Structure formats: structure tokens, C-alpha cells
Amino acid sequence: MGVSGKPRGSSRTCPQRRRRRRLPPSPRARGRPSSASPGGAQAASQAELEGRMKGRGSFQAASSSSPQYKKPYSPEDKEYHRRFQIFMSNKQRIDKHNAGNHTFQMGLNQFSDMTFSEFRQKYLWHEPQNCSATQGNFFRSPQPYPRAIDWRKKGNYVTPVKNQGPCGSCWTFSTTGCLESAIAIATGKLLNLAEQQLVDCAQDFNNHGCSGGLPSQAFEYILYNRGLMGEDTYPYLAKNGTCRFDPHKAIAFVKQVVNITLYDELGLEEAVGRYNPVSFAFDVTDDFMHYQKGVYSSTQCGKTPDKVNHAVLAVGYGEEMGLPYWIVKNSWGPDWGMDGYFYIERGKNMCGLAACASYPVPLV
């Protein structure tokens, strides 16, 4: 590393050293501790050291907070230091966001040592999906429906939050979650259905395993395939595999697939309020991966069917201080967001959430 502030030429070659006139400090520098002074340098170094030590402690806590997310980093590895730099960059962005005036708060989580590019490659769809749910067959009713609802509080109708892992299979979790709830509301029996069957077997319905798919197309697969197995007989592996469907072990069936008309968010609201939770897809951008709590709203995301890249489950809706929101179940585990859930602004087709929504009518 070069030493700043000194000319590269050696003073020994000069026969005579000329005294330089010291310039007065610039107005910008006045009243500010000089890094050249021992006190200023010590204060700056101490603040930087404390910041980095605090960040490193947060990094170590975040990377080992859960056995499921524990990262195989050692302080002696180059990868450890690379991940720490990414972590600190994300932490600075989180702190800056939280210092501003926003409807939601960011926080550190299992993704904090990843770039958004890495996150997108592992957890989101790799290419735009052909959303068949844009051709709606949902018919609105003139009858009133609830002004607010949360299916988690109405009974044993929603399974616990699951974790898709590093596989773009969110669409399978949105699908099973929706069908699980629809069957529970219809029968009182809450099943735990097999996402891995959809990953392995639903390719003929324009789904692509860990590379993406859509709940509407997964519901069609279950309808025409005549059934979906349970998680206990077809466990989740978070990777593409060979189809092992056994029709004799199918426990869930679909009678009809209902698609909400493109951009009809009131229709989506009515379906959730009147019938059951509804699957939808939306566009995840880099500010969403750090979501912690509050009502998510963004100007970065797209709003059309070709932009959506993540499928989730609307389990209710409400309003907070005049701000309407959706209650949404995600598939990134209970450590993310609000115990695995998030709120997103309602009534504005936020991030395209009304561009691709559907639910099944179960055969019970």
C-alpha cells in the first residue's frame, strides 16, 4: 500500500530542501476532528472498530441463529470475509431504510449475507411464467362479505409456515397451502400435503420444479391427475426429482379451478372473505428479502403477469391506521418476517398481486 501525502521521489537527490508554506485549513475542514491528530484518528478508529465489531457479532448471530440456516463459514476462510462484506452492505441498507419514513421495517434474517442476485437465483422463479389465471372464471356476488378477515383466527384452517429452502418451488407451497385450507374449511380436517409431488410430477402443466411454476397450473395438475399425496408419504427434498406419485396414496382432490380476473383485486378480496385463502403471485424485488414487519409497499416492483416471480397465500385482509393490507403466508420459514407472514398494501395491485390469483374447489 502506498503512503499518501508524500511525493514518490526521494529527498536525498535534492541538494537543498525548500520549506513549504503550510496552507490554512479549508472552511469545510474547520470544526472537524482531524484524522491527522492523534485524538481524531483514535476517535475515528474506535468508532469504525466498534461498528465493525457490532456488525460482525450480528453476522455471526444471523448466520448461526438456526441449524437450518447455519452457514459453513470459518473466520479463516475467504468466503467468510466476502459474506461479511455483503452482510455489512445489507445491514447499512436496512439501517438507512429504518431511519426513513416507511410503512414497513426491514431487519436482518437468513438472507442477510446474500446479494439479491444470489437470492433471486435460489429462491425465486428463473423466468417469466405463463399465467393461465389471467383468464378469470370467478363470478362476483351482490351479497356482502366481511370487511376484514383472518383465517388463522377462525379455526384450525391454516397449516404452519413451511420452508421451501434453496429451490424456486414457492408455487408448490402456495398450492398446497391453499388446498389444505380449502379442505379444512369444507371438512374440518387439516391435511399436510406434498409439495415434492408437484415439484417432481407437474411438468406437463407448464410447471418447472425448482425453476418455477404457478398455483393455477398446479391446481389443474391435481384436478386431471386425480389427486395429491400427503407430506408423510411424499416428503419434501428441496430439489428436482423423479415422479413417485402413487394414486392409491392420494388424499386431496380438486373439483374445479377458480381464476380471479386479471387485476380484479376486489374479486380477490371477495374470494378470500367469502370462501377461503387464495393463492397469488407477485414481483419480489431486493427490498422485500429484508422485510421484518409492517405493511410492505414498493415503487420498485412490476405489476403485470410477466413480472411476477414468487407465489404466496393470502389468508386474510385488514386495515391499520387507514392503510388497507393483505395478510400473507410465505414459504421462507417462521424465522422470516412476522413469524413467516407479511402484510402488503391492499387496493393498488401492489407488485402485481392481482395479476395472477386462483384457488381450488376441493372434491370432498
From TrEMBL:
Q: Which GO terms describe its biological process?
A: proteolysis
- Output the PROSITE patterns linked to this UniProt entry: THIOL_PROTEASE_ASN (PS00640), THIOL_PROTEASE_CYS (PS00139), THIOL_PROTEASE_HIS (PS00639)
The UniProt entry, under InterPro entries, shows: Papain-like_cys_pep_sf, Pept_asp_AS, Pept_cys_AS, Pept_his_AS, Peptidase_C1A, Peptidase_C1A_C, Peptidase_C1A_papain-like, Prot_inhib_I29
Q: Where is this region: Disordered?
A: 1-76
Ranges of Low complexity composition bias in the record:
32-47, 60-72
Entry superkingdom: Eukaryota
Looking at the record, the residues that make up the Cathepsin propeptide inhibitor domain are: 68-119
Q: Name one GO cellular component term.
A: lysosome
Task: Using the record's annotation, list all stretches that form the Peptidase C1A papain C-terminal domain.
Answer: 145-361
What this chain does, per the entry, is described as: Important for the overall degradation of proteins in lysosomes.
What's the family? Belongs to the peptidase C1 family.
Molecular function, one GO term = cysteine-type endopeptidase activity
The name this protein carries in UniProt is: Pro-cathepsin H
SUPFAM superfamilies annotated for this entry?
Cysteine proteinases
Q: Does the keyword Glycoprotein apply?
A: yes
Sorted keywords for this record are: Disulfide bond, Glycoprotein, Hydrolase, Lysosome, Protease, Signal, Thiol protease, Zymogen
Q: Catalyses which reaction?
A: Hydrolysis of proteins, acting as an aminopeptidase (notably, cleaving Arg-|-Xaa bonds) as well as an endopeptidase
Q: Kindly indicate where the leader peptide sits in this chain.
A: none
The cellular location(s) given in this protein's UniProt record come to: Lysosome
The organism is Varanus komodoensis (Komodo dragon)
Q: Does the entry feature the keyword Membrane, yes or no?
A: no
